[in-house]
Amino acid sequence: MDQTDCNIIQILEVNSRITMKELGEKVHLTGQAVAARVTKLEEEGIVEGYTIQLNEGKRGYPVHAFLTIYMEKISHSPYLDFVRENEQIIRNHYKISGEGCYLMECRFKSNEHLNSFLESLNRYANYKLTLVIAN
């Protein structure tokens, strides 16, 4: 991977919908040459996919929360089943080291929705709640 590949990745991180022609102009290559480089980056697993950014507030999920999850039981299976059942709320879920066992990022329609989720979660684990005030 050379500096041109790094520049391509940097541009794609900002705008993955850019045309190959525009991308080529930004890195001083033809559209065909830059497309070949992007394909190579994909084949090597450096570029794994493309995504979109959503305005969660406008989608109806204005409450943004992070939960540090603390497990008391040895078996985490019931908790992990709960996580799978709530994929529409849970945006990211990580097994972590340090404080807590898992870190969960969630979006909720309202504080009432959050409270209901926390009551359900409490059947499987303890948690520490952190609310996002602004991005």
UniProtKB/TrEMBL annotation:
Span of domain HTH asnC-type: 1-62
Record has DNA-binding as a keyword: yes
SMART domains, sorted: HTH_ASNC
GO CC term (a single one): cytosol
A single MF term (Gene Ontology): sequence-specific DNA binding
Matching Pfam families: AsnC_trans_reg, HTH_24
Gene Ontology annotations of biological process type: response to amino acid
Taxonomic superkingdom: Bacteria
Signal peptide range: none
Alphabetized InterPro entries for the sequence: AsnC-type_HTH_dom (IPR000485), Dimeric_a/b-barrel (IPR011008), Tscrpt_reg_AsnC-like (IPR019888), Tscrpt_reg_AsnC/Lrp_C (IPR019887), WH-like_DNA-bd_sf (IPR036388), WH_DNA-bd_sf (IPR036390)
Record keywords: DNA-binding, Transcription, Transcription regulation
Protein name: Lrp/AsnC family leucine-responsive transcriptional regulator
Species of provenance: Trichococcus patagoniensis
